[in-house]
Automatic annotation (TrEMBL):
PANTHER family: RE54151P (PTHR39953:SF1)
Name of protein: YqaJ viral recombinase domain-containing protein
Annotated Pfam families: YqaJ
Superkingdom to which the source organism belongs: Eukaryota
YqaJ viral recombinase domain segment(s): 200-327
GO biological process: DNA repair
């Protein structure tokens, strides 16, 4: 929906450089209702923007009583996000006669100092909307349906039925997947573009993926947002997520220059022993898995490039990636804050920790049995 932000922002104008500081914050659109847009600000505050007849009226912050920077930055973020979406929609509705692809410039981070001289000039990275494949061949559609029929969790739970314990369901999944190793390999091939393919999202529903492993081991709420994610609910959108998505392919190409046999990969699913676990590394080499991170602030950059400070969530993510691929080490490639112009990458090696990973899988399985499995039955077995 096209919203009007100008009047609200002019009424609430401040001297802060909020327009330039948007990229320094992690803002996620959690929910969009008829007259409300609910956002999460830096994982700390909830900002609710009231909209009447497509015009922004008010904003409130869970952490502040009066109009605050959280509200203004969030509204400006929504303004830029709406502008981006409108431009993308224009691209989708353009006639076939228009041959050139409209591109949207990625906003430069405030931390990227223009005073730093680069000895090498790189072409400017721009954003163009990735379109999901719509003109799939009959063979591709047949392959997608075949994989989905056998390997999607909703179909596995339907073929298992209402009766039977969690352990029996686990064995049922292991049996089906072991009998269809060719489809597991095909699923990896069909989901090579990961989030840009519908099948990738469908196969992740009901599975403990690497990105949510740590959260699964720590969660104690059996009917909260984590279970919603297992059931397929989207986590929202943020500037940081968009930047990472755009830069990822460029980082991959830079790493590939050093390791020419590095390949992209799709969703890799476990079978036999742990059929409900899966991972999607950003790259796969004969000797290691690749995980790419594109931090947007100096603080997160330091966390990624110092293994002692590495977020436990990402350590667990990389460990499960090694587990499902059978690799003993992983390469963490971290894009610099000024990667758009310098192509600088910090590389760190992480060794596989078998004892740690085994315990994480055990803990995640316990939560799955207690919370996720019952929720899946409620949703898919009527």
């Amino acid at each position: 929906m096209a919203l009007c932000f100008e009047k609200f922002l002019s009424d609430k104008a401040t001297k802060r450089r909020t327009r330039n500081s948007i990229s320094r914050h992690n803002i996620i659109i959690k929910d969009i209702k008829d007259e409300e847009i609910i956002c999460e600000f830096n994982e700390q505050s909830e900002v609710i923007v009231k909209v009447i007849e497509k015009e922004v009226q008010t904003a409130s912050c869970s952490s502040c009583e009066k109009f605050c920077e959280h509200q203004e930055i969030t509204v400006r973020f929504l303004a830029s996000h709406t502008s981006l979406k409108r431009k993308i929609d224009d691209d989708d509705n353009s006639s076939d006669e228009v041959d050139n692809v409209k591109r949207i410039k990625l906003s430069e981070n405030e931390e990227n100092s223009p005073a730093v001289a680069n000895t090498v000039k790189y072409p400017e990275i721009k954003i163009s909307k990735k379109k999901k494949k719509s003109n799939l061949t009959e063979k591709q559609l047949e392959e997608i349906n075949k994989v989905g029929d056998k390997l999607r969790i909703d179909n596995l739970i339907k073929s298992f039925g209402k009766k039977g314990s969690y352990n029996e369901f686990y064995k049922h999944c292991a049996k089906i997947m072991s009998e269809n190793m060719d489809l597991i390999k095909l699923a990896n091939k069909l989901t090579i573009e990961q989030a840009d393919t519908d099948l990738w999202h469908q196969l992740r529903v009901g599975r403990v993926t690497a990105s949510r492993l740590y959260e699964t081991t720590k969660c104690t709420v059996k009917n909260g947002s984590l279970v919603d994610k297992f059931l397929g609910k989207s986590s929202g959108w943020s500037f940081m997520m968009m930047r990472g998505t755009v830069l990822e392919e460029y980082v991959f190409k830079e790493v590939q220059k050093e390791y020419p046999t590095l390949k992209q990969c799709g969703l890799i699913m476990c079978h036999k022993v742990h059929p409900l676990f899966a991972a999607s590394p950003d790259g796969l080499h004969e000797d290691f898995v690749l995980e790419i991170k594109c931090p947007g602030t100096a603080n997160t950059f330091q966390q990624y490039t110092n293994l002692d400070k590495l977020n436990k969530k990402y350590f667990a993510q990389i460990q499960l990636q090694m587990f499902v691929t059978g690799k003993r080490k992983a390469l963490l490639a971290v894009a610099s804050l000024d990667f758009e112009t310098t192509r600088k990458i910090t590389k760190l090696w992480i060794e596989y920790d078998e004892e740690y990973t085994t315990q994480m899988i055990t803990d995640a399985s316990e939560f799955y049995e207690q919370a996720v499995y019952p929720a899946l039955k409620r949703k898919f077995l009527h």
